[in-house]
Specification:
Largest sheet of chain B: 2 strands, antiparallel
Helix content of chain B: 55-70%
Strand content of chain B: under 5%
Number of helices of chain B: 6
Number of strands of chain B: 2
Radius of gyration of chain B: 21 Å
Order of helices and strands of chain B: HHHEEHHH
Largest interface: A-B, 31 and 36 residues
Number of strands of chain A: 5
Oligomer: heterodimer
Order of helices and strands of chain A: HEEHEHHHHHHEEH
Structural class of chain A: alpha+beta
Strand order of the largest sheet of chain B: 1-2
Chain lengths: 219, 187
């Protein structure tokens, strides 16, 4: 009996760790409860919002994002592809939701909003996600963010002043109020025509399926 | 007439390289000979190594699952887990590096368990495996310190566990050498 004991222990540990891994995987993919229609009841957020695409597009996608978060950076190319695919049928709104656990996210949000005051929010938004590791790894985050903005040809004196301005603070606070009113707890949180996307992680397939459903052309 | 033999015969033990302690010299039957004590300590160290490998396995499974689901990792102290875990070095193709870690820790656990139960071949394999793991750990620490300039708590935990595992396996290796030397002197 003792001869087989080590093998029994090894098999038991293999079984337990496999089950634990699968359970953890399922748990991470667990969908938060759908909050269909709740968007309409939330606070309005910063005005005017950052919108890309026609305001009268049949599908309105609203993202609550954090420039430091990994899932947001993974969602960024997926959303870009969807925007190219749906063209005039899709409009995207971005709301600031820098998570408190991310040390550099608030600064990045301020940089994006400061660029927004010069009409370059989306350029800065794209630049922040595309160069995420550059400014995250920089010893001086602020300098790296300023460098990102300089490449966009912004008025740098104004940009630096705006980064610390009351207006930027108010915009981020207004978006935060909207986050709180919608009881959001993670990034990216995505709403399509007011329905919260519950699939995790968001992939090309499930984003297209949700947009198709909103368009009423689900295959 | 067919004679049934118990499996734990000398032949079976030799075939399976079971490490058996020789009888203590006459006059020291109290069970407190240095060799017996050393064997007991080795077994305790193998148990400790197996437990450490289990901790490493849990850490690796956690990181693998988070990589596959694309969820944020709850960084406890350093705050730069994501920089490390989303870098180009975090996966080989589509397979997260942590998955290789899970396989390595599970193998280390299995070999430590088998070695603790007296399988000599497992001891040699464990030594080689832990050597490889230590090399990989050093490479990953170098990447974090000098290439990414960011540290991940869970990677540092894994590095600490691998180093402890290496220290234990090396200690056992030298203890075995000493025991073998004593046995040859007695012979």
């Amino acid at each position: 009996m003792k001869r087989y004991l080590p093998y029994a222990i090894i098999v038991a540990v293999f079984f337990i760790s496999t089950v634990a891994g699968v359970e953890l995987y399922k748990n991470n993919q667990d969908q938060p409860p759908a909050r269909t229609g709740k968007l309409a009841f939330g606070l309005p957020g910063a005005a005017p919002p950052h919108v890309r695409g026609p305001a009268k597009a049949p599908v309105l996608l609203e993202e609550f994002g954090d420039f430091e978060c990994l899932p947001c950076s993974l969602f960024y190319p997926i959303l870009k592809k969807a925007e190219a695919h749906y063209g005039e049928r899709l409009s995207v709104t971005f709301r600031e939701y820098p998570l408190t656990k991310h040390t550099h996210a608030p600064e990045a949000a301020r940089a994006a909003e400061a660029a927004g005051l010069q009409g370059s929010f989306w350029e800065m938004h794209d630049s922040l996600y595309e160069n995420r590791l550059v400014w995250l790894n920089a010893s001086n985050t602020r300098a790296a963010l300023v460098e990102c903005a300089a490449k966009l040809g912004l008025d740098m004196e104004r940009f630096q002043k705006d980064m610390d301005s009351e207006e930027v603070t108010k915009r981020i606070a207004a978006d935060r109020d909207r986050v709180t009113s919608l009881e959001l707890d993670r990034t990216p949180s995505v709403f399509i025509n007011g329905d919260r996307m519950t699939a995790r992680p968001i992939t090309d397939e499930n984003l297209h399926a949700a947009i198709d459903a909103a368009l009423g052309t689900q295959k | 007439m067919k004679i049934c033999m118990r499996p734990s015969t000398l032949l079976w033990e030799l075939k399976n390289e079971i490490v058996k302690e020789p009888d203590p010299p006459a006059g020291d039957r109290s069970g407190k000979s240095p060799i017996r004590r050393s064997r007991r300590l080795e077994n305790s160290l193998y148990t400790l190594a197996a437990l450490i490998a289990l901790l490493g396995l849990s850490d690796s499974i956690y990181l693998t699952v988070h990589h596959l689901t694309g969820q944020d990792v709850d960084c406890l102290a350093s705050g730069s887990c994501e920089t490390v875990l989303t870098s180009a070095y975090a996966a080989v193709g589509k397979i997260p590096l942590a998955a290789f870690g899970a396989v390595a820790y599970f193998s280390a656990f299995s070999l430590a368990t088998l070695a603790g139960f007296g399988r000599r071949w497992a001891r040699r394999l464990l030594l080689c495996l832990v050597g490889g793991m230590l090399g990989m750990t050093c490479w990953l620490l170098y990447l974090q310190a000098f290439v990414l300039h960011a540290f991940c708590d869970f990677c540092l935990l894994s590095a600490g566990l691998t180093m402890t595992l290496s220290a234990i396996v090396l200690t056992i290796f030298f203890m075995e050498k000493r025991t073998a030397h004593r046995l040859s002197r007695q012979a």
